Amino acid sequence: GQQVQQSPASLVLQEGENAELQCNFSSTATRLQWFYQHPGGRLVSLFYNPSGTKHTGRLTSTTVTNERRGSLHISSSQTTDSGTYFCAIDHNYAQGLTFGLGTRVSVFP
Amino acid sequence: DMKVTQMPRYLIKRMGENVLLECGQDMSHETMYWYRQDPGLGLQLIYISYDVDSNSEGDIPKGYRVSRKKREHFSLILDSAKTNQTSVYFCASSPQGQGVSNERLFFGHGTKLSVL
Questions:
Q1: pLDDT confidence of residue B101
Q2: Spatial distance between the Cα atoms of A48 and A54, rounded to a whole number of angstroms
Q3: Across the interface, do A101 and B101 touch by the CB < 8 Å criterion?
Q4: Which of A109, B3, B11, B116 has its CA 20 to 30 A from that of A75?
Q5: CB contacts < 8 A (A, B)
């Protein structure tokens, strides 16, 4: 089945530093999404980005579908960015998303 | 207000008991999902529902069943719960029908289930 690999598994940042999270997947026939999980557990969608680059605030998502990879860039990190970031791709059109194991980000002041 | 609501938030059951996890959404989304999240395994899809009474197994359906009698409600049922079903369960919904990609999933807060 589809596989999604995220790196790094965890990341420690000092406030103000930038970070890049990577996502690699096993098929070209996919659409990629990024999710953020609060330390308390709530999952929120950050980006639906099948290809190209999208920006929201200090976050940038880039997907290069034919190279089977995506990235999430966090600029000028803040302590409120702490949490786990998940990459997910279409399992297939009828079978929901396949999630990576996530990157745990910790931002310290 | 776009929301996916899960009840209860926390649940403790004994092995062999039946468990009902409920999920509601107020966005009239056609598609709804149940996932479980475990350390080291990430989120795994249990069931997907394309609309009322139109459900499909996900990656790990064994030990679970679902019910969708109204578009806004999707229930997950564990008949005779097992200790390995201790997990955090997430419900999600998305605004498209069968055969279309999963754009913009909206998740509930999750239900933390402990089976003793």
A1: 52
A2: 9
A3: no
A4: B3
A5: 67
